[in-house]
Write a structure and sequence with these properties.
The chain has 126 residues and is mainly alpha-helical. It has one domain: Serine Threonine Protein Phosphatase 5, Tetratricopeptide repeat, CATH 1.25.40. It is built from eight helices and no strands. Helix 3 runs antiparallel to helix 4. The longest helix has 17 residues. The termini are far apart.
């Protein structure tokens, strides 16, 4: 058991600069912006869109892991879309897709009548 732990530790230390290791480190170590992201998502769920946008932007500015960065930009896009701010909505979707080109909306999100079409058009490059 101890031998396995030593070998694992050695492998971890040897691969600290690799992309897979950075992903493991991101997973194990919360980013500075994570508390603001959590607050912003809670405010989003509660319908406090102005407060949510402030916290989402703060989280982005403080630094987030890529998966959280996509979530922050996506929710900012949702808020802008339902606030009839189409340019900002599309900009936020573009930012999310730039971080994760394979990003897709969940089925219930994709079917939304306002941001679903906006996301699809941004994803298609229009």
């Amino acid at each position: 058991m101890i031998r396995l732990l030593i070998i694992s530790t050695a492998l971890v230390l040897a691969g600290c600069g690799s992309a897979p290791m950075r992903k493991v480190q991101e997973f194990l170590q919360p980013s500075k912006g994570e508390p603001a992201l959590k607050a912003g998502l809670k405010q989003y769920e509660d319908g406090d869109y102005a407060g949510s946008l402030k916290n989402l932007q703060s989280a982005i500015d403080q630094g987030l892991a890529n998966r959280d960065l996509v979530v922050a930009h996506k929710h900012a896009a949702f808020i802008y879309c339902v606030s009839n701010r189409e340019r900002q909505c599309r900009d936020e979707f573009r930012k999310a897709i730039a971080v994760d080109p394979a990003m897709e909306l969940a089925p219930e999100e994709a079917g939304h009548p306002v941001w679903g079409p906006a996301f699809r058009s941004v994803k298609a490059g229009r």
